Amino acid sequence: MAGRQAVKAYLDLVSQACRAVLIFLKDNKIPHTMENIAIRKAQQKTPEFAKLNPMQKLPVLEDNGFVLTESDAILKYLATAYNVPDHWYPKLPEKRARVDEYTAWNHANMRTHISSIFLHEVLLPRMRQPANSEKLKTVLADLDGTLDKLENVFLKNQAFLCGDDISLADLLAVCELMQPLCSGRDILKDRPKLLSWRSRVQSALSDSFDEAHSVVYQIREKFTAKLSPCSNQATL
């Protein structure tokens, strides 16, 4: 990496995908700077940011003039372009394909359900709009089936989703599963196997995990403080 400037990451840590990118940068000690783009202020919609990413979404990575969007692509680029341990995104085709298999599934399954829960439990109340309780019930039921697949199809009896060591699959998955904590909902509380996996991932990531998720903990504190004593909202 000699002669390379620090990469620049445009992030909002309320986003699970942005947290995954920051954790990867920190955990692998890749020189970087971070520019916070506040989604709540629609800063990703400004003309200036649209020049950087016409999709007007986060995260965005800028590396010596090379601009890349989409968290999956960013993480795989960093794992390939920088000297990081092979377990993140293995060179062996079969092992790499397992990581690709999960990341392809994650976006259309886990991301969809988790984002919908965040919308109904955090964003709509913050905008003083009524949440659709029936829709939320349906989303939670769908998520339950998705968690079954995470546990039985991907994790199985392994330590991590793609084998014996942490990979990009685990990083993306854990950041998704932390998102409902914003509303005090721990969706893994009745799933001891996935709870053990989450603990292993958190231990493997050390301080970078809690640093990136500090905003989640802050939102949770504010949210749960507003709950009445008789609320049946799941809490930690």
Automatic annotation (TrEMBL):
Please state the protein's primary subcellular location.
cytoplasm
Q: Give every GST N-terminal domain span.
A: 5-86
Indicate whether Oxidoreductase appears among the record's keywords. no
Q: Which one of the record's GO molecular function terms can you name?
A: glutathione transferase activity
Superkingdom of source: Eukaryota
Which Pfam families does the protein's record reference?
Answer: GST_C, GST_N_2
Entry keywords, A to Z = Cytoplasm, Transferase
A GO term from the CC aspect: cytoplasm
Tell me which residues make up the GST C-terminal domain: 92-223
Give the family from UniProt. Belongs to the GST superfamily. Theta family.
Q: What is this protein called?
A: glutathione transferase
Q: Which organism is it from?
A: Sinocyclocheilus rhinocerous
| Source taxonomy | Eukaryota, Metazoa, Chordata, Craniata, Vertebrata
